[in-house]
Amino acid sequence: MLQVGGFACLPFGVGRVGALGGVCLQVRQIGGRSAQLAVSTPEPPVTAFVFGRFGWSWCFPRSRSVRILSHEKSTFYVVLQRLLIKIHLENAPVVHCWIRTLLQPPANRLVLFVADGLRADTFFELDENGTSRAPYLRDIIHTRGSWGISHTRVPTESRPGHVALIAGFYEDVSAVAKGWKENPVQFDSVFNESAYTWSWGSPDILPMFAKGASGEHVYTHCYLAETEDFAAKDATKLDTWVFKNVKEFFISARENQTLFNKLNGEKVMFFLHLLGLDTNGHAHRPGSREYKENVRKVDEGVKEIVELIEAFYGNDDKTAFIFTSDHGMTDWGSHGAGHPSETLTPLVAWGAGVHYPRRITMQHVGDTFSQQWKLDGLDRLDVNQADVAPLMASLIGVPYPLNSVGILPVEYLNSSDLFKAESMLTNALQILEQFKVKMTQKKETTLSILFSPFALLSESEQLDILRKTRSHIQGGNYKEALLLCRSLIDLALEGLSYYHTYDRFFLGISVVMGFTGWILYIILIIIKTQTDIIQTSSNSRMESSHLSRYGFTALGSFITFFLMIQSCPWTYYVYCLLPIPVWHAISNEVWILNKFVDYMLSISLARTMGFLLVIILAVELMVLSFFYRAVLTVGLIAFACWPIGTKMYTQSKITTLVWVVFCLLLAVFPLMPVVGREPNITLVIFAGFASLCISLTSIWYLWKSKDRKFGDQNLALNICQVLSLAVSTYVVSSTHASLAIKQGVPLINHIVSWTTLASALAVPLLSTTFLFQRLLCIFISFVSTYLLLSTGYEALFPVILSCLMFVWIFMEQETLVKNGLSGRRKLNIIDFSCSTDISQFRQLNLDDIRRSFFLVFFIITAFFGTGNIASINSFDPASVYCFLTIFNPFVMGGLMMWKVLIPFILVMCAFETVQISAQISSKSLFLIVLVISDIMSLHFFFLVQDYGSWLDIGTSISHYVIVMCMTIFMMLLSRLAHFLTTKKIEVWRKKKHHST
Ligand SMILES: [Zn+2]
Ligand SMILES: [Zn+2]
C-alpha cells in the first residue's frame, strides 16, 4: 500500500500527485516511521482509504479523533468530530485530516504553565531594589531560553485566552453570550492531539479542554469552585494547591507502573493553570503587594516543578517548558478590553528544542519595553497568542490543531533548518486546508455564475507556491522556503476572511433598504396620525393598487427562490424579505408624503432647513458620544444654554438657574475616568449624606406645604426609607473597611444589602401616587441600592441626575406656558394613577421632537455618564462586595446590570411625568424616539467593521447592538416606569381616606 510520507495528509487527487511527481508532496512506501507511530499511540492508527469526488487520497489520522463509518458501498468515510467549520463531507472533494511533519520532534513532552492574569510588565520589570520578582524565570531568559511578548486579542478573558493558547484560534465573539462557560463549538486542541495530557487548576478552565477532547486522554485535577473567594485571605493558595498536587502526582507515578509507562511515552503534555494572580489582581489590583508577592510564589513553584520533572526523567533533555499567561490586567484590576496592560502577556520558553538566548546590540521592535525591563541585550521574540499552539505542537511533534490560525514562531526553535522549513510548510498546508474547506462551502451555497473565487489564491497559485517551496527545501534554500510558506499562510488567512465576509455587500443592501423603509414608514405614520398636517380625510387615498401588491409578491417570491437555490441560512431570508412588506406599506401611503412635501414647501424654506440641520447635528452628536464620552459634556453645556437661547429665563429665573447648575454638575461626569478605576469610599459616603439631606429637605417641604396630599402612613414610609438610606451608607463603609483589614464581610451586611435591593421595586408602590411623593419614594429607593453597588464618584451620579430630571419636569412645564399650550397646571396636584385619560391628549408639535431628543440624550447620558462600552464587560468585582464575595459570574453580572439600569429608570420616571404634564400620549413620543434611534442604528451599521484591532471590531458591533436594542429596551423601561409611578399597593386599606 502506498502511504504519504512527508505529510500525514494529502489533499490532492491521485492524478495531481502524479503530476507533481514528488515535488509538492513526497509519496513513498509506508516506512518504519509510521510503524513507530503506531507503537507510540495506545490505539493503532487507522489507515483510511477514502473516496473523494475527484479521486482518492490517503491518510492515517489519529484514531481517537476520527470516527470511521462504514458506508453501504463498504467505503470508509472519515467523519471528523469537532470541526469548527461544518463540512459537507459526502460532497467534499477534499478530505480533512491532521497534517504534521514526520521528522523527529525535539521534545518528548511539554510543560505549559499559564499564570492567569499575569501582566507582562509586572513579570519582566525589576522592582525598586533592582531585583526581579521572578528571579528563576529571569535567569532562564538570560541563560537557557527564548522570551517575548505574547499579544492577546480582545476579549481578554480567560476562556478565549486559553483557547488561543491551546487550540490556536480566536474564539468567536458569540461565545460571550454563553458567558465563556460552555463550549459553543467543540474544538480540536494541542491537548487533544497529544498522547496524554495531565492538567491541574481551576474548574472554570480545565474541563473545556477535556470535554473538547475525544477519548480518555486528557486528565483534569481541579479544586472546588468555592475556593475562588475574592475576599479570601490568601489567593496564592490556588497556586500552591496546583504545585502540591503536581508533586504528589509525580511521587505516586513511581509506584504506579501504568502511569509510569504513560508518562514515559512521547507526545505527553502537562498543563498547570495558576489562578492565584488573577484572583489577587481582581481583589487587590496589580499594583498591590499581594499581586507582586504572588508573582514571586509562582516563580518559586515553577522552579520546584521544573527541577522535579527534570529529575523524574533523569535529565534526559527531552522536556520543553513554556511559561505564559492568558491575559493581563488593568491597573484597576479588570480585564476583558484591549488596553495594553490587558493584551501584553509574557512568554518564556526553554528546554528541549527551544533556542538559547541570542545576544543582540539593538532591539528590532519599535517600543521601549526591553529597555524598561533591562532586557535590551537579549533578542525579544514577540508572538500573537494563537502562535503558541503551533509552537507547542511542533516541539512535541503532534499535528497542529484543526482550526488553528497560529503561525509557527520558528525563531523559538533550536532545530535543523530542514525541521523548521518542514514545520512551516505543514503549518501553511494546515491553514490552506481551512481556506479550502471554507471555499468549498461557499461555492456549494452560491450560484455558480455568481461565485467569484478569492483571486489572489487560485488553485494553480497554491500548487505553484507549494512546488516552489518543495524545491527550495530540497535544494537546501530553507530561508526562501520559509518566506514562501509565510506568504502562503498570509494569503490563506486573507482568503479565509474573504469567504467569511462573502455575502456582506448583498446583506448590507438588504439591511439598509429595511432600515430606510422602516424609518420612512414611521415618519409617515407620525404625520398621518399624530399631527394636523393632513387635514383632508382619507378619501383622497389611492386604492392600494393590485398592481403594487402583485409586484411586491412577485419580488418576494423571486428573492425566496433565489435564496433557496443557494441554500442560504434562515437569517438571510429574514434580512432579505423584511424590507418587502415595509416598502409595500409605504407604497400605499405615498399620498401622505405628497401632502407633507406640499406642507413643507408652504412654510418657509429657511426654517425647514434650519430645523433639519439641528436634527442632523443632534443625531451626530449622540453618535459621536459613543466614541468620546466628552461629547456628552458638550451636549449638557448646550442644554444649560437652552433656556437662555429660548428666552425662557425671563419667565422663571430660579428654575432656569437651577437647571443650568445641575446641567453643569452632570457635565462633569463624562470627563471623569471610567467607573471602578479609582475606588473612593469617602465619595460614596458623601453621596449617601447628600441624598439624605435632599430626602429630608424634600420630606419636610412636602409635609409643611399647605395643600399636603399625604397622611401619616406615607410620612412613616418616607422616614423608613431615609433610615434605610442611612443604613446603606453605613453598610458600604463597614464592608470596605472590614475588607481592607481582610476580615471578610459580616453576614449582616449581605442581609441588609439584599433586603434593600429587593425592596427597591416594592417600596415605592406603597406610597401615594401624587407626583412629588411618588417620585421622592422612587428616588430614595433606587439611590440606596445604587450606593451599595458603588465604589467611587459614580455614587453621586444618580443623585445629580435625579435632581436634573426633577428640574427638567419644571422646565417642560415652563415651555408649555411659554407656548400658550396650557395654563400653569399645578404639578403637585397631578396624580399618576388618574392621568391616563385619552381625551386630554393633543397633537404633536415641533417641541415634542425636542422632548424626544432630550429623552434619548438623557438615556445615553445615563449609559455613558460613568462608563463606556469596555467598562461593561470588564467590571470591577469590588462594586458587588456588599452583596457577595464568592465569584459567581451570573449573580455578579445581574447586579452589575441592575446598577446600569438604575439611572435609566430614574430618567424614564421623569419622562413619564413630562408626558403627563405635557398631555401627550406616550405612543406618539415613542414613534419619534423610534425614528431617532433607527437613524442612529443605520449610522452604526455603516460603522460596523471586521478589520482593525479586536477592540475596534467588538466595540463597533456592540455600538450597533446597543442602538438596535435601545428602542425595545426603552419600551420595556417605559412600561416599568409606568408601573412604578401609577401602581399602588393598598396596605392600610381602612385608612384609605388619608391618602386620597
Ligand atoms: Zn484569566
Ligand atoms: Zn480574571
From TrEMBL:
Its EC number is 2.-.-.-. Its main location: endoplasmic reticulum. It is an enzyme of class 2 (transferase). Residues 494-949 form the GPI ethanolamine phosphate transferase 1 C-terminal domain. It is a multi-pass membrane protein. Keywords: Endoplasmic reticulum, Glycoprotein, GPI-anchor biosynthesis, Membrane, Transferase, Transmembrane, Transmembrane helix. Coiled coil: none annotated. GO terms for cellular component: endoplasmic reticulum membrane. The keyword Transmembrane applies. The chain crosses the membrane at residues 505-527, 547-566, 572-592, 599-619, 625-645, 657-675, 681-703, 747-766, 795-811, 852-870, 890-913, 925-945, 957-981. It is found in: Endoplasmic reticulum membrane. CDD domains: GPI_EPT_1. GO terms for molecular function: mannose-ethanolamine phosphotransferase activity. Pathway: Glycolipid biosynthesis; glycosylphosphatidylinositol-anchor biosynthesis. Pfam families: Phosphodiest, PigN. GO terms for biological process: GPI anchor biosynthetic process. The keyword Signal does not apply. Ethanolamine phosphate transferase involved in glycosylphosphatidylinositol-anchor biosynthesis. Transfers ethanolamine phosphate to the first alpha-1,4-linked mannose of the glycosylphosphatidylinositol precursor of GPI-anchor. Belongs to the PIGG/PIGN/PIGO family. PIGN subfamily. This is GPI ethanolamine phosphate transferase 1. It comes from Pelobates cultripes.
